[in-house]
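Record 1 of the preview.
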Amino acid sequence: MIPHIDVAETDFQHGSLNRVARVSLNGSGRYDLVTADAARWSRVLELGEPPEFKDEADALYFLGAIAARVRGDYLHSFDPHDDAHCPFSGSESIPMTAVSQTPAPAPQIATA
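->
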């Protein structure tokens, strides 16, 4: 299992998520950035100088930290996963799916 994260831009007009970058562990204690514009996505993802990982847990923490930083309406990343569980398996674009949102409970205001 070689874990990776996928970073996708939202295409609201076409209702899809388009993969723009993939950060994967390369098995030698480093990571690989696969994208058409490595300079841009390295900067956007704040990758900096490639660290050397002590062990797999350290590497998974690194990937998870990137995924946690990139969560928004336009740019989104997926938690670390292997190829067998990749939502982009065989494609660079996937359809957006509806997500039901439960409204937050009304705030309770204390009265004295």
